[in-house]
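Marked as duplicate of an earlier ticket. Keeping the data here for the record.
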Amino acid sequence: MTEHPTTGAGGEGQPDPAGGSDETAAWFTDKRRVDPLTGALRESGETVPLPPTGASGTAGDPGAEADPLAGLDFEPTGLGTDAPPANALAEELLADLQRVQAEYVNYRRRVERDRTVARDQAVSGVVEALVPVLDDLDLARQHGELEGTPFATIAEKLETTLGRFGWERYGAVGEVFDPQVHEALMHQHSDDVTEPTVSIVMQSGHRVGGRVVRAARVAVADPDA
C-alpha cells in the first residue's frame, strides 16, 4: 500500500477520482485483485481513498481519546451483590491467621517438650548403666580409698560431666523419709524423731532432671508410738 499526496485534479500525483481539489485528501494504491467488500474483480492499480478524517478518535483529531468500550454488546458491571464486604473478609482472614499462629505455637511447645523428654530418657539410660560404677566410687570415697590417688580426679570429672546433663546423687541422713524417692530396707524406732526419718544411707539414689533412676536405699527411724 502506497500513499500519494494530491495537489488537485491536474497536478502531480494521483488524480482526484471525485474531481475535487482537496489537498488534505490521502490516497493509496490497493493492489488486491478482488474487492474485499463486493467480491468483484477490479483493475490493477485502482486507487482507494482513506476513510474521512476529523471525526472523534481518528487521525484528524489526535488529541481525542477513543472510547475503550465502544462496540461492546454488554455493559461492565461491578461486584455481585452476594460478594462479602471487605471488613468481613478481613476479619475472617485475621481469624484464620490467629488460629494458624496458635497451632504453630502449640506445635513448637510440644516439639520442645518431646525433645526434652527424649534427652532426659537418653541420659537416664546412660546413668542407669553407670550406677554400679558410681556406687563403687561413692563407697571408695567414704572409705578414703580415693583421696590422694589419680582415681579421685577421674571420679570427680565423671560426676561433673554427668552433672551437666542433669544427673545428681541424693540421699542423706536426717532427711524425711519419702517412699517416692527412698527405698526402706529396714525400720527401727527412735525417741529422737517425730516422723519417719532416714537414719542410714546404704546406697545413694540417682536421678536425672527430677526423674528417679534408682531410689536411695536407706534405713528408717520411726517415732515411738
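See parent ticket for discussion. Strands lie at 3-5, 26-29, 47-49, 167-170, 182-190, 197-203, 205-208, 211-214, 216-223.
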